[in-house]
Amino acid sequence: MQDSFDVIVVGSGAGGAPIAHRLAQEGKSVLVIEKGPLLRPHYQVPGERSDFRRDEIYASSAEKILRVPGLANTGVSYYSSHVEPDINDEPHVYKGAKGQDYGTMEGYTAQVVGGGTQLYGSVSLRFTPTDLMLKTFNDDRRSPINNDPNGDVRGEARDWPIDYATLEPYYVMAEEMIGINGTRDNQQKPFSAVKYQKPLKPNPISAFAHDGMVELGKRLGTNIEPYRAPLAVITEDHLSSGRKIPRDASGNPDPESAKTSYVNRYGDPLGLKSSTWVALLSPVMEKPNFSIWPNCVVTHLVSDGAKVTGVRLLDPGGAERFINARIVVVACSAIESVRLLKLSAAADENFDRRINRNPLLGRYFLTHCFGGARALMPKPFDKSKALDADWATDCCATDDFLEANGLWAGAAIYNNTSDQALPLSLFRTYGSQDLDTLWNGFMSATEMRGDKFIDFLDNEFGRGLSISFMANQVPQFDNRIELHPRVKDKWGRPVAYVIKDWHAHDRYLMDVMAQQCGNVLRYGGDPVNHDYPIQGQGSIYMAENALARMANHILGGARFGNDPNDSVLDPQCRAWDFDNLYVTDGAFMPTSGGANPTLTIQANSFRVADHLLSRI
Amino acid sequence: MTVTVFEPGSEYVLNHCTKYLARAGAPPPPNDEAAAEAFRAKIAEAWRFPIIGLMRVADAHPELNLVTFVYKTVAGDTGSIQVLGTFGELYRPIPLQPVMFEGEDTGYRAVSVGIPKAQVHTYKYVLDGHYFVDPVNSQRVTLGNGRVWSRFFTDGYLQPLVLEPWEVRILYRLIEQILPFRGKEAENFLKRYYFGLNREQRKADMPKAFRLDDSVGEVNAIDKLLAREEAHRLTDYRLCLRQIDRVLRRQNPFLDPADTPAEEFVELYEKMAKSHGSGDNPIPGWDYGEYGNPAFFLYILRRHAVTCAFSHPKYAGNVGAAGWAFLSERYSDPATGTLFDWRPAIEAPLGTSPYYR
Ligand SMILES: Cc1cc2nc3c(=O)[nH]c(=O)nc-3n(C[C@H](O)[C@H](O)[C@H](O)COP(=O)(O)OP(=O)(O)OC[C@H]3O[C@@H](n4cnc5c(N)ncnc54)[C@H](O)[C@@H]3O)c2cc1C
């Protein structure tokens, strides 16, 4: 067993894989350590068999019971994907409204080579230039900020230590290397080059979303029109990863084969979804200087003075091993990275002193302000032939929109196409607000049976259309990740404790954005009177009648910045008091951005790779 | 019976067992049932063992499952563990091999064999001449001679494993009230659909699936859930079905409860929905000391009914994909055809995807 490498990357998802790929290409010896299994699309298994299945039980399992003792929801049912960490083994605990502790699915990504990018919906939007300079924008603004009586927003807003122009070439690189389809026209962000592959035809139900977005742009006075939501799904042969579109019987590429609605929460058996495994890691797999160890969990980073000398891990059999490296990159997803750093500090006094030079590790934990609206369209469509999203608009992300509405930051708005397309997903999300309440609505709607069940299907099957927004959450010092004082994982290590709340301005922002999403449906569903009936409109913060849709994003907790007293990481994502420790998953973000975060995590990781290449 | 051993490789085994079996603490010593019990209780999804997997296309045996037995010991253990089961020759145990990681012993021992789909088998591990049940898999059967064996079943097994015939019959009747397959239209559809299935499929599925005139075999799949993934719900079924039987017998002393007229099942369903246990809306004849919350049972049953009617047929419901076909026929557009075209996404022979295997 090789026990020394130039670089160890912990975690193979969006934040880890781009660095591993670039450094391996440049001949550095790289080891990727990943807690989850290495599951492959069919063409990579000799003899052919996909490890991912189009099977609704794979995405949300049979019932499991939360058995972690002493939690407010011990004994509840839950349903998880086959590659999610099991919450009985490795729970995340959060503090509920009444101060009680709950076990949660929230913030969980996937535990598999590729991380969250195996399961993700693959919506791959860029952040806007303003997203990266919210302090400057809010310092210079003309209108007051609504619902912020104490001026928290101005006090807590931060500019990123890099501006959009610095990140932009790496967006281009990510778009090319990951393999993303989309359109550039109508996006309100500068592009130096367009590397998108051609999008597939949208699902016909999305025409309502398109028309509603056009009308929304008109009403807002900017006439900003929608663009095809960029998706990390290849539609053409992908040069840099060597992936090919399946050929039909006459030898022609058949990109439509990607449209199945087994998309969000499913690994792709055909390898067309651009997970970091198929896009970045499997292409370097054969290099002698590249290794990946799946099914291994890193338990500690070990330090000596300003150097991290290596990592301790548990191999698949549970044996402890120590591996040396010149550089260690932590990319376990924000919550688990913070946890790993805190566990390392608890075991190593030198590490503790250096990582906790200020009280910020784990602080300013962020998710997204997130929500939307849903309505039943006038007639059904075959939603089972769809990717995750079709149209997006930036009309609620312009500086003028923010000024006009007293908002501190903007949002991307896009339509979901594959949601509730398959029968079980329609039933289990009926009346549920999030992953923690799956099935509850359907189970307790006992009146829905026989003819009423048919009525329900007649009404809903193929007719639901939902519009989502994704917006910045106000950073707050008190929103944080700690180690739980009592609950331990299956190895006996303290689990992550998530403590967070919404700011009053977050709530206001979500109401404004949910209203815009509702408007898209009102305008699009009823082109004449523009008041099509909406079934639900709401946001993640609301308990009832909310359309707090499923996937959430976990960011912050180890933010980067220019000031060592105000950040955990320097502008290159290096821990301030270490010479060779980097954190490159979503934890580095000082603000959460007005869009789904993964493309930005990947772009930043490519940027850090360039920096690392300049030093080793 | 000869059995073929396949070698999917250490990576395959580790990918399917580490998440569950790697954890703090030593594995139980062989044949120590108390230690095994404590070990198993901590494993989040112990039911995943043995691993019921799929053959590769190149193996050219789509009719088999790749069944992988995994036994956990400590790295370096030189004992030679074997598995003996009804799928192989009776007196010839098959040895498990060490599973390696980066050239080193992980402590896992495994063997993968090809076993026909739709079968049930019993097995034991053998070490130094001692026979013992699988410490991880909680599926057990007691044979006629009183001996306890471990059990597993492969995909699409259609005979009841844990439910009694009378329980199966009552369940079908109760679930009829929930699912959309009752009523002339749906019944005609199902008849036509089953008749239209090709001969091979009919031969395989039809005789085994119970009451396919107005169901899609969902109770078969519920039985499998209760035998494996949701064994923790079997008690609810046992207790509750006994109460349902009691209530119906009280209503119609001379009728087999499963033959109770449909209206009375509807009535019972409605009463159960309203009876939450805390003494509200008691159902005459229901012993609340035995099962306190009839509405809760309906909740479970509703989830099970739709899950089993509309999940992949490998789970033994949705026989011949009849549940999907029902949706696909009901929702269509005169101009463009069906609005639930499930076949192109699904593997052959069930579906028509030329790429997905
Ligand atoms: C269902 C779903 C849909 C989503 N849809 C979208 C979308 O449409 N667009 C979008 O932008 N984002 C989406 N996301 C979010 C996206 O997946 C994440 O933003 C992204 O994967 C985060 O990257 P990361 O590098 O921070 O973490 P991850 O990609 O999660 O990678 C972290 C990896 O580290 C591993 N790991 C953790 N701890 C250890 C340890 N101690 N030792 C070794 N390995 C470890 C984990 O197993 C994991 O594989 C979605 C997520 C989910 C779950």
Written overview of the protein:
The complex is a heterodimer of chains A (616) and B (357). By secondary structure, chain A is α+β, with helices and mostly antiparallel strands. In chain A, 25% of the residues lie in helices and 18% in strands. The longest helix of chain A is centred in the last third of the chain and has 22 residues, at 504-525. Chain A has one domain: FAD/NAD(P)-binding domain. In chain A, the strands form 5 sheets. In chain A, strands 1, 2, 8, 9, 10, 11 and 21 form a 7-stranded mixed beta sheet that branches. A 6-stranded antiparallel beta sheet of chain A has the order 7-14-15-16-13-19, with helices on one face. In chain A, strands 6-5-18-17 form a 4-stranded mixed beta sheet, with helices on one face. Chain A has helices spanning 17-25, 56-59, 116-119, 134-140, 152-156, 164-179, 206-219, 276-281, 334-347, 349-355, 399-405, 423-428, 440-444, 451-460, 504-525, 598-613, and strands at residues 4-10, 30-33, 64-65, 77-78, 92-95, 101-104, 227-228, 290-293, 297-304, 307-314, 320-330, 365-366, 368-376, 389-393, 411-416, 464-472, 480-488, 494-499, 536-539, 555-556, 581-583. With 357 residues, chain B is of the alpha+beta class. Chain B folds into 2 domains: 5-153, Immunoglobulin-like (Sandwich), CATH 2.60.40; 165-345, no CATH class. Chain B is 34% helix and 18% strand. Chain B has 10 helices and 13 strands. Chain B has helices at residues 10-21, 33-42, 165-176, 184-196, 199-205, 218-227, 234-251, 262-274, 294-310, 322-330; strands at residues 5-6, 51-54, 64-72, 81-85, 94-95, 97-101, 104-116, 120-127, 130-132, 140-142, 148-153, 332-333, 337-338. In chain B, the strands form 3 sheets. In chain B, strands 4, 5, 8, 9, 10 and 11 form a 6-stranded antiparallel beta sheet that branches. In chain B, strands 1, 2, 3, 6 and 7 form a 5-stranded antiparallel beta sheet that branches. In chain B, strand 8 and strand 9 form a beta hairpin. In chain B, helix 3 crosses helix 6 (218-227) and helix 8 (262-274) packs across helix 9 (294-310). Chain B is globular. The interface between A and B is large, with 75 and 75 residues. The structure holds flavin-adenine dinucleotide (FAD). Flavin-adenine dinucleotide is lined by residues 10-16, 33-36, 109-112, 115-117, 119-123, 264-265, 297-298, 331-334, 336, 340, 551, 553, 585-586, 596-598, 601 of chain A. Flavin-adenine dinucleotide (FAD) is lined by residues 10-16, 33-36, 109-112, 115-117, 119-123, 264-265, 297-298, 331-334, 336, 340, 551, 553, 585-586, 596-598, 601 of chain A.
